[in-house]
């Protein structure tokens, strides 16, 4: 029981870390984001950063940026795969479609749920950029679910064949 919990935590950690790497890369390399950003000269980005950090209290700005990144990371990259993993482990689901689909759907839905709670009726009419971002969030969650599933499948096959680290060291 304890080894199963430890393995689930390791799988969640691997999947969350993969999502935390995938999300910024997906945003940076997304063609739509590149098209929008290509109209802005490179030195303008440095002006934006300079203006952002040259406020009266730059420490407050840094804290705000870190809080924003933390919130996005937790809500999009960690929470969906954690919920999916707990449900999947509890029900003993082993389907790739379950892990990738549910975590992708949750990653895409969480920002919309938060938005609808704040904006009400306006939240029902997304712009094309918001819809595009929803696809990126879905892919991030699906990627995390895929990583979780791959690690789970590998560890289960090692456990079944007796070639895993835990099975070698559990008899000691």
List keywords for this structure.
single chain, 172 residues, mainly alpha, 7 helices, disordered C terminus
SSE order and pairing:
Layout: H1 2-29, H2 31-37, H3 42-53, H4 58-91, H5 96-119, H6 128-161, H7 165-169
What features would you describe in this structure?
The protein has 172 residues and is mostly helical. The protein is 84% helix and 0% strand. It has helices spanning 2-29, 31-37, 42-53, 58-91, 96-119, 128-161, 165-169. It starts with a helix and ends with a helix. Residues 165-172 have low confidence and may be disordered.
Indicate the percent of residues in helices: over 70%
Supply Rg: 20 Å
Biggest sheet architecture: none
The number of domains is: 1
State the end-to-end CA separation.
Answer: 18 Å
The succession of helices and strands, N to C, reads HHHHHHH
Low-pLDDT residue spans: 165-172
Mean pLDDT: 81
**What structural class do the secondary elements suggest?**
mainly alpha
Principal-axes geometry comes out as globular
């Amino acid at each position: 029981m304890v080894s199963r919990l430890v393995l689930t935590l390791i799988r969640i950690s691997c999947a969350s870390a993969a999502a935390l790497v995938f999300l910024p890369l997906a945003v940076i390399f997304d063609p739509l984001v590149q098209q929008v950003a290509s109209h802005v000269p490179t030195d303008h980005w440095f002006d934006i950063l300079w203006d952002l950090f040259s406020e009266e209290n730059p420490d407050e700005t840094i804290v705000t940026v870190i809080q924003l990144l933390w919130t996005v990371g937790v809500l999009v990259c960690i929470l969906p795969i954690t919920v999916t993993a707990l449900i999947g482990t509890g029900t003993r689901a082993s389907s790739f479609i379950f892990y990738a689909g549910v975590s992708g759907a949750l990653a895409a839905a969480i920002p919309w749920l938060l938005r609808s709670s704040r904006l009400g009726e306006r939240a029902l009419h997304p712009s094309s950029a918001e819809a595009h971002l929803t696809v990126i969030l879905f892919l991030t969650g699906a990627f995390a679910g895929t990583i979780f599933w791959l690690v789970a499948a590998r560890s289960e096959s090692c456990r079944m064949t007796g070639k895993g680290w835990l099975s070698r060291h559990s008899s000691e």
